[in-house]
């Protein structure tokens, strides 16, 4: 999970969502009260679940470690195959806009000629 969260694409997307969420909460008092209630509910459920799940996680720890190592190797290969994962969302959007603009310009030139 940490390795996925540290991917530039995932990290920048989370930052964007977090900023939008905070901005929305700050701008709209009614939404803020709903979000605050939802956050408290999620926190309570997380705390209750953590205490119940801990004994199971302890039992499964060797299996989880093996799965984690396997997933880590897969993510390393995926990162090599898809360099897009190492780019921030803003750059991907900018590159996509440039590509679309270029293709549209090429299409216009083709129609003109």
UniProtKB/TrEMBL annotation:
Location of this chain's protein in the cell: Lipid droplet
A Pfam family of this chain: Perilipin
Record keywords: Lipid droplet
InterPro entries noted in UniProt: Perilipin
Chief place of localization: other
Single Gene Ontology BP annotation: positive regulation of triglyceride storage
UniProt similarity note: Belongs to the perilipin family.
PANTHER family named in the record: PERILIPIN, PERILIPIN-RELATED
Name of the protein described by the UniProt record: Perilipin-3
Organism: Eudyptula minor (Little blue penguin)
């Amino acid at each position: 999970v940490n390795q996925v969260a540290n991917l530039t694409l995932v990290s920048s997307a989370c930052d964007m969502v977090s900023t939008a969420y905070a901005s929305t909460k700050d701008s709209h008092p009614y939404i803020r009260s709903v979000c605050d209630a939802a956050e408290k509910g999620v926190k309570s459920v997380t705390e209750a679940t953590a205490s119940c799940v801990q004994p199971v996680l302890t039992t499964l720890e060797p299996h989880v470690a093996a799965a984690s190592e396997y997933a880590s190797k897969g993510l390393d290969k995926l990162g090599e195959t898809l360099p897009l994962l190492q780019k921030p969302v803003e750059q991907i959007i900018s590159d996509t806009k440039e590509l679309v603009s270029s293709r549209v310009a090429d299409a216009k030139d083709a129609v003109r000629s």
